[in-house]
Every structure is written in structure tokens, then in C-alpha cells.
Specification:
mainly alpha
Length: 207
């Protein structure tokens, strides 16, 4: 039964493949509108391995959409970039995590950076811990904790500063909303970062 279902699925995909290719070409055209781009990126994210022998042939097109004015397009690009095994894809993802105007895109890009290799040489990576968005900071904590042992000279000081500043902010802020946001960082700091700066364990426990 499984094999028969698989055969039917493959026949169905073969029937719709020309339509998918057409929609990809349409959405990746320089003249494409936003909805066409969104559809093309969605198709690519779901079926790229079945439509292309080598997905790198469309990388330049995907890269162009990194600077799309549409947040939904950029979010789709964020989800797709880790599938490309090249430095430009990594650089684009890091750019979106650090500099995108949308905190939603920055948080998503930071989360996707977990799939990228060789981040231990990125001098900009620690800046994710000071992003205005607490969602970005939360995603950055485990990411940087995984990378830090590979390059202690680059990461240990920013980690210690981040932990210290988080504790100070928690103790000194009088804004309940800010306190709530800061409190979401503390369990992650305790789990992932305090091992790099054990001197702050007593303060974390008190907070």
C-alpha cells in the first residue's frame, strides 16, 4: 500500500512539475510582484530538491531578495538561505540577523544561524546579544553558547558583559513590562551562558 501511494504521489508530482517550474520562473523574474515572489519562494522551500539537480543555480536570485521591502519575502529568504552551502548565504543570513529593520526577521535569521558553520570567526556575532529585541537576544543566547568554545578570545568577554548588564537591568528597572522581558532571558542565561562566567552564579540565583 505504501509503495502504491508513493507511486501515485510521484505521478501526481510529475503532472504538476511544469506548473511549479512556471510559477518559479514567474516569481523569480525581475518583473515579478510581491505575491509572485512569495509563491515562488514557498514552492522553492518545499520542492527545491525535486525541481533542481543543483540548487545553487538559483542562489543569485534568492540573494537579490534579501533586500526586498516585503517582510514576508525576507522571512522566506531567511528559511531558505541555510540550504545553500556557501559563504555568501551565510553572510546574507548574518546580515539579516544583525541589520534587518524588522525584529521578526532578525529573530528568525538568528534562529537559522544555528545551521551555519564557521561562525566562530564572526566578530559581529556577539552584537546579537545587545539587539533591541528580546526575541533576538533569546535566540542568540544558545547560538553564541555553542560557538563560544571555538573562539574564547572573541566571545567570552561579550558574554560576561551581557550577563552582567542583564542582571543590573533586572535589579534597577522599575518598568514591569521591561522586567518581564528581561526575566525571559534569565533561564537561558543560567542554562547556556553562566558556565562561561561562573562568578555571576550567586547574582543569578538571587535575581
Amino acid at each position: 500500500q505504501y509503495m502504491e501511494a508513493l507511486k501515485r504521489t510521484m505521478r501526481l508530482f510529475a503532472d504538476v512539475k511544469p506548473i511549479l517550474i512556471h510559477k518559479l520562473n514567474e516569481g523569480f523574474s525581475p518583473r515579478a510582484n510581491t505575491q509572485q515572489q512569495i509563491l515562488a519562494l514557498t514552492i522553492f522551500s518545499k520542492f527545491s530538491m525535486h525541481l533542481f539537480e543543483k540548487i545553487d543555480v538559483v542562489f543569485d536570485i534568492i540573494q537579490r531578495l534579501v533586500k526586498s521591502p516585503c517582510q514576508e519575502v525576507r522571512l522566506l529568504v531567511v528559511s531558505i538561505l541555510p540550504t545553500f552551502d556557501n559563504k555568501k548565504a551565510s553572510d546574507n543570513l548574518l546580515f539579516l540577523a544583525l541589520f534587518d529593520s524588522s525584529k521578526i526577521v532578525r529573530a528568525a535569521a538568528t534562529e537559522q544561524l544555528a545551521h551555519i558553520k564557521h561562525l566562530d570567526q564572526s566578530k559581529m556575532l556577539p552584537h546579537l546579544l545587545t539587539d533591541p529585541s528580546y526575541a533576538v537576544r533569546r535566540n542568540a543566547i544558545s547560538l553564541i553558547a555553542n560557538v563560544a568554545p571555538l573562539n574564547p578570545m572573541l566571545f567570552y568577554v561579550p558574554i560576561a558583559v551581557f550577563v552582567q548588564q542583564t542582571i543590573i537591568s533586572m535589579l534597577t528597572t522599575s518598568n514591569p513590562s521591561t522586567c518581564q522581558k528581561i526575566s525571559t532571558l534569565l533561564p537561558l542565561i543560567a542554562k547556556h551562558l553562566v558556565k562561561f562566567c561562573p562568578a555571576y552564579i550567586p547574582q543569578i540565583v538571587k535575581v
